[in-house]
Amino acid sequence: MNLKEIQDLLKQINKLELAEFKMKTNDLELSVRTKHYEKNKTQNIISAPISTPAAPVQTPAAPAAPAAASDKPAAPEKVEEAAPDESNYLEVRSPIVGTFYRSPSPDKPPFFKVGDAVKQGDVVCIVEAMKLFNEIESEVSGKVVKVMVEDAQPVEYDQVLFLVDPKG
Question: What does pTM read for this prediction?
């Protein structure tokens, strides 16, 4: 299986909103957990040999919970404040599936912390994929306002890693 086939497979996994995907052959073992893995306590797994393409599996999607009107005045104010702020932020997304690391090694400080200024091209984190440590560069400039992923947690393709305020 070449890199292009793996990337296509990862895109399909993302589209199907699977929680977990595992595939094992004589020369390749692939295991992917998506953001849906934590949300769904039941695991959706597809196992297939490399010579047999995996059939598309429809997972039942939980309907989005509508925002409930609250009688408490404090809760709506917090929601109203957070929504407009985050919409003005730029996103730094993961270009690959892997494990997210905020620092170059466990004994070193993170590349960036909340409040730090980041420039386009700066290395903001590392994503480990298949034993390769890939430096992820920012495609935006501004101030880091939120780290969206915990250190050493799995990330999926196109998952938001950081929120950056371009006015920063």
Answer: 0.50
